[in-house]
Amino acid sequence: MYLEHFGLEQPPFRITPDTRVFYEGGDRGAVLEALAWAVENGEGIVKVVGEVGSGKTVLCRMLAQKLPDHVDLVYLVDPGLGPDDVVPAVAFELGLDIRAEERLAQQHRLHEELVARHAGGRQVVVFIEEAQNMPLATLESLRLLSNLETDDAKLLQIVLFGQPELDRNLDANEIRQLRERITHSFDLQPLGRQDVTRYLNFRLRAAGYRGPDLFSPRVARALNRHAQGLIRRLNVLADKALLAAYAEGKHTLRPRHVRRAARDVQSPARRVRIGRRRAMLAGAAVIVIVAMAWIVLNGQGPGYIETELAIGNTAGGDRR
Q1: Is it true that 3-16+191-264 and 27-188 share their CATH fold?
Q2: Could you tell me how far CA 173 lies from the centroid of its own chain?
Q3: Domain boundaries in the chain?
Q4: How many other CB atoms are found less than 10 A from the CB of residue 40?
Q5: Phi, psi at residue 82, to the nearest 5°?
Q6: What's phi and psi for 274, nearest 5 deg?
Q7: CA–CA dist 140, 193 (Å, integer)
């Protein structure tokens, strides 16, 4: 491994979300602050949308750490929950096993628990990851759950984390009431060019690196052509670029190291281009085979082809 080669104390580009190396650039810090405020003060549903690998999970974990001690967190990690599973799942996370009870009894028991916690100065917040995979009926159950309240406060706050497909799901007419309950929406954008350079070097220094910046703006641009500002892709490509430099015994990163990394982990755009090229070649091969078959079926077999070639060669010789 390249850790000793570059003077690192730990791997700098793990893809596992790690709050210890949370990067506040690219509006991540601002979104986190706004999220915390919305959860503590909002009365509706909060939504966070970002592309695959944009950093939603680590943002969710940072939010959990940032919220005050009087907040009780509930994680719903299974987006495949059915509409009748939502109340038992939330209750179970709060220490109540009501799965064997009738539906109305489940709702009553959960409501009592939430009222008791509210009276004790507690706030219950439900985090839902991969919300874009939730059935529409389950999303509607969440809206009904958000209706639980006292005369002056909501008993439950809901935060949805999802990919852009979540927004398309929320456009469905049958859950328009849920859409109207969303009071705060946040879009987690890919990192911009300057933030890509800062992010890469930030991760290196967080891992113990003490030398000059390894990722120059030029190298970072080359890397970002494949990563498109998405943190998970940046981590994978940066790790492989460092490995390529280490294999050469180099202590400086060059664009060629990025190219080697990209060949090892092809970006989706590159895979599409390769797929199209292969499809074109396959199409050309089919045309040739069909043409040969037509010649044979029309009684113009190999002898015809040889004759045509001979005529062509003679004509070519006459032109010379």
Answers
A1: no
A2: 26
A3: 3-16+191-264, 27-188, 268-319
A4: 15
A5: -80, 165
A6: -65, -40
A7: 39
CATH T-level assignment (fold) for domain 27-188: Rossmann fold (3.40.50)
Q: What's the whole-model pTM score? A: 0.79
**Cross-strand bridge partners of residue 127:** 75, 159
Is residue 320 scored above 70 in pLDDT?
no
**Rounded to an integer, what distance in angstroms lies between the CA atom of residue 227 and that of residue 210?**
25
How large is the average pLDDT for residues 208-222?
Answer: 95
- Supply the pLDDT for residue 279: 54
Cβ pair 270, 262 in contact under 8 A = yes
Q: Does the domain at residues 3-16+191-264 carry the CATH identifier 3.30.1370?
A: no
Res. 129 pLDDT band, cuts 50 70 90: very high
Amino acid letter for position 167? D
Q: Pick the closest to residue 233 from 53, 12, 11, 49 (CA basis).
A: 53
Instruction: Kindly state the average pLDDT of the residues 86-114.
Output: 92
Helix (H) or strand (E) holding 319: helix 302-319
